[in-house]
Amino acid sequence: MSKQAFQKIYTKITNITKATCSLRATGVGNEELATIDGRLAQVVRIQGEDVTLQVFAGTEGIPTNAEVIFMGKAPSLKVSEQLAGRFFNAYGEPIDGGPQPEGKEVEIGGPSVNPVRRKQPSELIATGIAGIDLNNTLVTGQKIPFFADPDQPFNQVMAMVALRAESDKIILGGMGMTNDDYLFFKNTFSNAGALDRIVSFINTTEDPSVERILVPDMALAAAEYFAVEKHEKVLVLLTDMTNYADALSIVSNRMDQIPSKDSMPGSLYSDLAKIYEKAVQFPDGGSITIIAVTTLSGGDITHAVPDNTGYITEGQLYLRRDSNVGKVIVDPFRSLSRLKQLVIGKKTREDHPQVMNAAVRLFSDAANAQTKMENGFDLTDYDNRALEFANDYSRQLLAIDVNVNTTEMLDTAWELFAKHFKPAEVNIKQQLVDTYWKK
Questions:
Q1: CA torsion angle for 349, 355, 356, 357 (degrees, to 10)?
Q2: DSSP letters along 195-231, please?
Q3: Mind giving me the DSSP string for 280-297?
Q4: Cα dist. 187→27, 192, 199, 407 in Å?
Q5: Of 140, 395, 417, 434, which residue is the least packed, with the fewest Cβ within 10 Å?
Q6: Rounded to an integer, what distance in angstroms lies between the CA atom of residue 94 and that of residue 89?
């Protein structure tokens, strides 16, 4: 950063840790950016004149007499239509070889929307993935996480959602991605011809881990521009929020803050809520919907990150591998969308709620039959038919590689009902059976 006339330069650092530098300074604001020995830093604590800055690239090699220059502003992003189709780093700088976009400069990390300006979510977001659209339908303005083990293809699912979702803009925030994942997203979007509606902010494993803290705020600043200024339906995809939380933990621990559960900072709940509460449906039609991957360690749902996430969000989506069909499915038992009742049967076909409930109940009967079989009990004819239904249901509807619209999903479910059961066994209203049962 070039020096400006009459700009105050500090050259006396009082304390240096692995991630932070401290000094005495005046006229400094919270979250203000600075450079220390040419490295970008951000104010994370102010006590009187004692200022602590978090150095994104680490403090190794910084001397105590290094030049510290405050920029007088918090991290910001230039927003305009020029963001569409571009890939940026955690600072909003292009990483795709293109020019720096022009536009209005806005600070990132601002407050969430006043509840008075919010509208109750009522618009369907179709993803084309039946495990979501049929059983856990998403609504504009909703916030919902994907819980998945690290070895599951959650980034592939995110890419599929980005390509299939019926939204005006997709904002991708990648934290701790491998270069392979970054190239996967870039090539997938480019090959599908969908770059014109996707904006991506990427932090890879080669970038400083602390930079991941900026990615969600950058993504949401772009989302707010398109939702508020352009009245567009925006879907924000964040992956992986566990990496974001780990970055918070690194900063907290290196600042000698007392850790909370699972070595996470005591502020984890509010840090996550600050992000998720940006999900909103505006009265004039613009909206921000957030889907965020949270990877689980050994499937531990009680870990601080998924535990706090569950208190904030409106449901969750679980990925698991169905060994019976060899496919990754959206688990109908552990997944939940708390807002689906606002759209199913209203924005979708009238039989949607009944079909959804019947299919999950029959899938549950198959799980009971599986347990009986594994314990050596004899199976009834109904048990065998339930198991056959479950395999077809997983393969044709729950698998993440299924791409059909909501009407086709419902028609497929009716076909499976008729293939394996009698109408009385399905337990759906007779009026709907008369209309939709496949003869």
A1: 130
A2: GGGEEEEEEETTS-GGGGGGHHHHHHHHHHIIIIIS-
A3: EE-TTS-EEEEEEEEE-S
A4: 46, 8, 14, 30
A5: 434
A6: 6
Q: Is 216 helix (H, G, I), strand (E, B) or coil?
A: helix
Which amino acid is it at 155? N
Residue that is written with structure tokens 């997983």 in the block: 394
Alpha carbon distance 257, 429 (integer Å): 58
Q: φ and ψ at 156, to 5 degrees?
A: -65, -40
pLDDT in 10s for each residue of the chain, 439 residues = 444 444 678 989 999 888 889 999 988 888 888 999 989 898 988 999 999 998 888 888 999 999 999 988 888 899 999 999 999 999 899 998 899 999 999 988 888 888 888 888 888 988 888 889 999 999 999 999 999 988 888 988 889 888 888 889 999 999 999 999 999 998 998 888 888 899 999 999 998 888 899 999 999 999 999 999 999 999 999 998 999 999 988 878 777 777 788 889 888 999 999 999 999 999 888 999 999 999 998 888 899 999 999 999 999 999 988 888 899 999 999 999 999 999 999 999 999 999 999 999 999 999 999 999 999 899 999 999 999 999 999 999 999 988 889 999 999 999 999 999 999 999 999 999 999 997 7
Residue 366 CA, chain-centre distance (Å), reads 32
Helix/strand/coil for 301: coil
Asked if 358 and 416 count as a contact pair (C-beta separation under 8 A), the reply is no
Q: How far, in Å, are 35, 43, 361, 394 from residue 5 at the CA level?
A: 16, 23, 72, 67
**In what order do the strands lie in the sheet containing 13-16?**
9-10, 68-70, 33-36, 39-47, 50-55, 20-24, 13-16
Burial bucket for residue 27 (CB in 10 Å: 0-12, 13-18, 19+): exposed
Structure tokens at 129: 């993935």
Candidates 170, 222, 225; CA nearest to 192 is 170
Residue pair 78/103 in contact (Cβ under 8 Å)? The answer is: yes
Positive/negative CA dihedral, 108, 56, 188, 140: negative
Q: Which of 157, 167, 168 is nearest to 129 (CA)?
A: 157
Nearest to 397 by CA among 144, 176, 134, 174: 134
pTM of the model: 0.89
Question: Roughly what angle, to the nearest 10 degrees, separates helices 268-276 and 215-224?
Answer: 30
Round to the nearest angstrom and report the end-to-end CA distance of the chain.
73
DSSP designation for 399 = B
SS3 content of the chain, % helix, strand, coil (to 5): 35, 25, 40
Q: Where does residue 6 fall: left (phi above 0), alpha (psi -120 to 50 degrees), or beta otherwise?
A: left
